[in-house]
Amino acid sequence: MTPHLARRTADIQPFHVMELLRRARELEAQGRDIIHMEVGEPDFPTPQPMIDAATRFLTSGDVHYTAALGLPQLREAIARFYHDRFGADVAPERIIVTPGASGALMLALAATTDPGDEWLLPDPGYPSNRHIVRSFEGVARALPVNADTRFQPTPAQVGGAWTPRTRGLIVATPSNPTGTLLDAAELAALRAAVLARGGTLIVDEIYQGLTYGVDSSTVLRSMDDVFVVNSFSKYFGMTGWRLGWLVAPSAYVREIEKLAQHFFISPSTPAQHAALAAFAPSTIDILEARRNEFATRRDTLLPALRQQGFIVAAEPQGAFYIYADISQLAADSEQFAQRLIEEVGVAATPGLDFGDNQPRRHLRIAYTNRQERLLEAVERLARLRA
Amino acid sequence: MTPHLARRTADIQPFHVMELLRRARELEAQGRDIIHMEVGEPDFPTPQPMIDAATRFLTSGDVHYTAALGLPQLREAIARFYHDRFGADVAPERIIVTPGASGALMLALAATTDPGDEWLLPDPGYPSNRHIVRSFEGVARALPVNADTRFQPTPAQVGGAWTPRTRGLIVATPSNPTGTLLDAAELAALRAAVLARGGTLIVDEIYQGLTYGVDSSTVLRSMDDVFVVNSFSKYFGMTGWRLGWLVAPSAYVREIEKLAQHFFISPSTPAQHAALAAFAPSTIDILEARRNEFATRRDTLLPALRQQGFIVAAEPQGAFYIYADISQLAADSEQFAQRLIEEVGVAATPGLDFGDNQPRRHLRIAYTNRQERLLEAVERLARLRA
């Protein structure tokens, strides 16, 4: 049977790292020890307060649909968190609880993107963003970014790439895979460049809270005419629950509610009840301790990698990734990643997963693993070079 | 701020019943008693074995992403269920676990539908199906169906509506809102009509298991070249968990996996662990007792409604809905539904939510409420007519 596939499927790439992971699992099945530094989720369990909240809720058995936009009390709790933690006033009515940040981005793009509409996205960047653009028949246009601008796009670049079909710009702070941030002035300048052209700005704040040596913030402190995508996965440690949220400009909420009804009916009810415990002071204490642990890992790993010949020109200040230039070590990061697994048992993600901008020169190394394992990985890297 | 909305949003309608629900809640806040017969989910709690399985899993705290296609052991359990319950051999590799049946339909349509491709859908039908078609820039073409064919489309109708742009047919058995079934011969004839024209058949089996006076089956017993959408929501009583699955023809699975990675990353991990308990004999005992309860409700409600002047020409044999012709009672089902709420405190869903085929003549009445409440609702209806 020859499948009759939609044209979009030809443009949508898999996560290439999955192939490496398959190989890693084969080697592990043979008894080899693999240090996993390719994983894009915290290695910590879901904090106990969220587990307890979900378990308490489940004893009722009353796991029915919620409103499509999410539990009102959760939308209010998120609004309070924006106020108390970041000094941002966000009306709960603008907060749409979603099945993960992916669900939030799907809603934002489905609500705004006609066939042929172009979105500008920094390259390297999180691959699903461009694939969701493509899925709704938009066109993802890469803005190649590099260490000179800390892997973030500039207003000049936005202006230069803008066409009559450009619908807007999607940026991420902190960025995956580079861990770099946009400060308030840079975000204001990007917003101005986009809005002056009649476009829309979407800010991915999925790694909000996971910043090191600098406080987290939100673009919502000063702007109410942009979309913000966020998640309970990373800072809050709830990846498997699949819960995120979208903050939309007020004028879009009613239309997005319709889409949410049809795409999702409602977000996961147990996950929403778990998330009600996410903002409690006792939970934040746990999360801040984890943030400190991530900071320590970064501070250990970054100089050690540099000593091994990895070039990291733009200091990562957030998320849990180091996007390293491997040009002093190898010609091709995909082959290099294969060698790392086969020869010394270290898994990392080749740049290929993040776009077309010098991907074979870069490797994403996640510090979602214990300190001692990271140090052992560095020793293994040294062995590879020896 | 004037929102810059995608054109698709103008074509996507909200669930109209939400307005009625808002009014029902207002009245309830004023102390009025409303009998809810508009709700599209079982009134039963999630069965205890699933609650226990989830709770046990949560004690580990290890709520991380799973594979994008779902936990291998859950895909195998679903395959075993197909074999043991329905005598259908379905390879676990073809089973894709999704965030609800909505997620399954999104994957099937995103994988197969180019802009302008037409899908044929029975009208009345579940509204999200046509809105998801539209969201991926397909065109939903209604096949008006009525009681003569038990609200199911015929091969002749499919042939008559087929155009060079037609991509395929989506049918549901049991159907929402009519509760009618397609038998094996009818499904075979519809498949033949679709495949002869180079099209694709999607069968919505979301209400599988909830049939009364007739055994449930699956189209997968005799066909491996169709898509099947299913859910843990209805028969298994897990609505709020948001978990369903898609069975795809083998040749599509790899492409659908890519889409699932980007759309969802993975289905909810707690929900998947809960669902592992869904097929145990002790769970099935609970579910079959509920099925008997639904059958009793139907057998009580259906004659009582007929006695009140509701016309139900095509016997509903599944799901938990009665799609009643109200033309002997009122000229417009939307106004009638408003009167029901305001005057006698009964909530039901006007036909408007299910398409354009005589919607004002029909009302969907769900028996997702206790027997005594259903009987009280009938008494109230009698009062309305008096």
TrEMBL record, chains A, B:
<feature type="domain" description="Aminotransferase class I/classII large">
    <location>
        <begin position="33"/>
        <end position="381"/>
    </location>
</feature>
<comment type="similarity">
    <text>Belongs to the class-I pyridoxal-phosphate-dependent aminotransferase family.</text>
</comment>
<dbReference type="InterPro" id="IPR015424">
    <property type="entry name" value="PyrdxlP-dep_Trfase"/>
</dbReference>
<protein>
    <recommendedName>
        <fullName>Aminotransferase</fullName>
        <ecNumber>2.6.1.-</ecNumber>
    </recommendedName>
</protein>
<dbReference type="GO" id="GO:0008483">
    <property type="term" value="F:transaminase activity"/>
</dbReference>
<keyword id="KW-0808">Transferase</keyword>
<dbReference type="InterPro" id="IPR004839">
    <property type="entry name" value="Aminotransferase_I/II_large"/>
</dbReference>
<dbReference type="InterPro" id="IPR050596">
    <property type="entry name" value="AspAT/PAT-like"/>
</dbReference>
<keyword id="KW-0663">Pyridoxal phosphate</keyword>
<dbReference type="InterPro" id="IPR015421">
    <property type="entry name" value="PyrdxlP-dep_Trfase_major"/>
</dbReference>
<dbReference type="Pfam" id="PF00155">
    <property type="entry name" value="Aminotran_1_2"/>
</dbReference>
<dbReference type="InterPro" id="IPR004838">
    <property type="entry name" value="NHTrfase_class1_PyrdxlP-BS"/>
</dbReference>
<keyword id="KW-0032">Aminotransferase</keyword>
